[in-house]
Specification:
alpha+beta, about 35% helix, FAD/NAD(P)-binding domain, three-stranded antiparallel beta sheet, 14 helices, globular, 12 strands, Guanine Nucleotide Dissociation Inhibitor, domain 2
């Protein structure tokens, strides 16, 4: 199924309500692709798009711990639980990874994920690009319905024939552009676009490796991903906390130890651990204070220590990151790591708004290229390539 759907990620979404030649051709290509799946795979795809991850996995697997581990891929980047309809597609989205031509493979970036950004920046500079950090854009200059440049927060104006935004739809259209420059129905659609960040992060500096009771000692299991998701009920209960405005007391966690793969990330004999956590709702009851941040970090460490009892004594330093921190530091609205929920109501030709999923915007010469557009989140650059 992942192989069948992956080509759609590389398509510019056609507008099904348009009669333009380009959209009609796009719909024809999409129809041919779906027809080429055959009846059995097409019916399976239709079911998958509407099912919950739990129901989908129940059809294929028996062991609860295996189903729970796989179902976790259906909740990342969205404010849903494994039994919520539509999460089966989210699971599929995360199983379409590829690295060096190997399908369904994921890898570690040497030096951390930031090294990917540095590599892209280096390639851009070789082609003559000038990259300016710490130069936030205050607004897009629009003249006669066309974008002609930007104004920085410093007041500096930069003129350009084309302006491209990699920010999420809320920041792009509700902060950088004056509402009067956009159609009212488009502004309303962007206001309805949901983010609902639900992910947090805990980074640890360790004096020694964790010793897991299920697999004691050092071994290859510490070089891959470690999932804390013992059952579907466990993950669903973690979501229940978030539904009522609280972080998960016993959260789902995806744990990696990058220094096991890339020793240069920590001093000799030391290690770093990265813990991706759900759920940590952006709209937390009472808001994210320093005390609530630390309480969230404590819940993560307490839960993980049940599986690796030496963890607490091994911690040299910890960094706890909430959705509010993600929004403040990176500019991702509501801390959603995919610039908007990966929900069926805002995917493909509905991302970010009906009739505006082809990277153009209502302002001529102004384009969008972030993961708030099709095909959504992930470190793949697909939105930029299609734009």
């Amino acid at each position: 199924m992942a192989r069948a759907v992956k080509p759609i990620l590389g398509m510019v979404p056609p507008d099904p309500t348009s009669l333009s030649p380009g959209d009609l051709l796009g719909l024809l290509r999409l129809g041919r692709h779906l027809r080429g799946l055959g009846a059995e795979r097409f019916h399976a795809l239709y079911k998958l798009m509407t099912m919950s991850a739990a129901d989908f996995l129940d059809e294929w697997f028996e062991t609860d711990v295996l189903k729970a581990t796989k179902a976790a891929s259906g909740i990342i980047g969205t404010f849903l639980g494994p039994r919520s309809p539509g999460t089966a597609y989210i699971l599929l989205h995360h199983y379409m990874g590829e690295i060096d031509g190997v399908f369904r493979a994921w890898g570690f970036a040497k030096g951390g994920t930031g090294s990917i950004s540095e590599a892209i920046a280096g390639a851009a500079r070789r082609f003559g690009a000038e990259i300016r950090a710490s130069a936030p854009v205050a607004r897009v200059i629009v003249d006669g319905g066309r974008a002609v440049g930007v104004v920085l927060e410093s007041g500096e104006e930069i003129r350009a024939s084309v302006v491209v935004s990699g920010l999420d739809p809320r920041r792009t259209f509700l902060q950088l552009v004056e509402p009067r420059e956009l159609p009212g129905e488009f502004v309303d659609a962007i206001r309805r676009f949901t983010f609902r960040g639900s992910s947090g992060k805990v980074n640890l500096a360790l004096g020694e490796l964790p010793d897991f009771t299920c697999m004691p000692g050092t071994g290859p299991h510490l070089r891959g991903a470690i999932s804390i998701s013992p059952s579907l009920a466990y993950v669903e209960r973690a979501y229940d906390d978030a539904k009522y405005g609280e972080f998960s007391r016993r959260p789902y966690m995806d744990v990696v130890i990058p220094s096991m793969i890339d020793p240069g990330m920590a001093p000799p004999g030391k290690h770093v651990m990265s813990i991706f956590v759900q759920y940590a709702p952006f709209q937390l009851n009472g808001g994210w204070t320093d005390a609530r941040r630390e309480a969230f970090g404590d819940a993560v460490i307490d839960t993980l220590s049940e599986y690796a009892p030496n963890l607490k004594s091994a911690i040299l330093h910890r960094q706890v990151i909430t959705p509010a921190d993600i929004e403040r530091v990176t500019g991702l609205s509501e801390g959603n790591i995919f610039q908007g929920e990966l929900a069926l109501r805002q995917l493909f030709f509905l991302r970010p708004a009906p009739a505006w999923a082809k990277y153009r915007t209502p302002v001529r010469g102004f384009y969008q290229c972030g993961s708030g557009t099709h095909p959504g989140g992930g470190i793949m650059g697909a939105s930029g390539r299609l734009a």
